[in-house]
Design goal:
cell membrane, single chain, mainly alpha, globular, MetI-like_sf, MetI-like fold, 280 residues
């Protein structure tokens, strides 16, 4: 009887794995098609099932000729890195203070931060634009960094506050006995223990910031300051053609850094999610 049950469980498990593999391939196929199509010759481009006969680089050459790819990449990298860095600095300190201070004011501050998560982005577009004009920040990368930081602080503070509560207070007391101040204790002792939360935070925010299209199109006017995603759309709109080869090449170049980043940081993200689910 036990043998029959074990065999049935094995079959169900095998069928589940095959089903999940098929679903994964279904989601991965568009990415595979994007990469393969960017290397196809024009005559072969619109055949989705055909593999490229050779490594055709004409689409990439045309993309570099008509679009300042390096400028777009540097703008995207600067905005993404600046936003992530500022989010980590502000949210980690805010989450630490809120988690460690029992005063009601800090509890109110915590709920004040959390309330920012329920405000739709669309409701603040016009006020944000007017504020940027009044402060002379429209068409600047700094304005984009501040916008992304403000949008991510509520969730990031919530995460850091939860992770900080899992750190024993005895560690801070020992550091205090060794002559460490609050600021030094946090950055040298507490913050390294929050690396799983930091890795998770980076992965949760970097994709939205890197791939954002609406923000740069709305708040940036100078073509020299445009990000990669905005360049892809402008290239399609300005050329007004159906030559999707260079567009696919631009999309591959815009996606590749995120794929590389995921491979290097996925263990921190998984660890952070597991710890968060257990400690929460």
């Amino acid at each position: 009887m036990n043998t029959l049950l074990s065999k049935r469980k094995d079959r169900v498990g095998l069928a589940s794995e095959v089903l999940l593999l098929l679903v994964a391939l279904l989601f991965l196929y568009p990415i595979l098609y994007l990469v393969l199509a960017s290397f196809k010759e024009p005559g072969q481009f619109y055949n989705p099932l055909a593999w490229p006969d050779s490594l055709y680089l004409g689409h990439y050459e045309k993309a570099f000729q008509k679009v300042n790819v390096w400028s777009g990449f540097m703008n995207t990298f600067a905005i993404s890195a600046g936003s992530i860095g500022l989010i980590i600095i502000v949210s980690s300190m805010a989450g630490y203070v809120i988690a460690r201070m029992p005063h009601k004011f800090f509890q109110f501050l915590f709920y004040f931060f959390i309330s920012g998560m329920v405000i739709p982005l669309q409701t603040g577009m016009i006020p944000i634009f007017k504020m940027g004009v009044a402060l002379h920040l429209i068409d600047t990368r700094s304005f984009m960094i501040l916008l992304y930081t403000a949008g991510a602080i509520p969730m990031a503070t919530f995460m850091y506050s939860g992770f900080t509560k899992s750190v024993p207070r005895e560690i801070e007391e020992s550091a205090s006995l060794d002559g460490y101040g609050k600021f030094r204790t946090f950055w040298l002792i507490i913050f390294p223990l929050l690396l799983p939360a930091t890795g998770t935070l980076i992965m949760l925010n970097i994709y939205g910031i890197w791939n954002d299209l609406f923000g740069p199109l709305l708040y940036l006017k100078d073509p020299a300051k445009m990000t990669l995603m905005a360049q892809v759309v402008q290239f399609k709109a300005n050329n007004q053609s159906i030559d999707y080869g260079p567009i696919f090449a631009l999309c591959v170049m815009a996606t590749l850094p995120l794929i590389i980043l995921f491979f290097f940081t996925q263990k921190y993200m998984m660890k952070g999610l597991i710890i968060g689910s257990v400690k929460g």
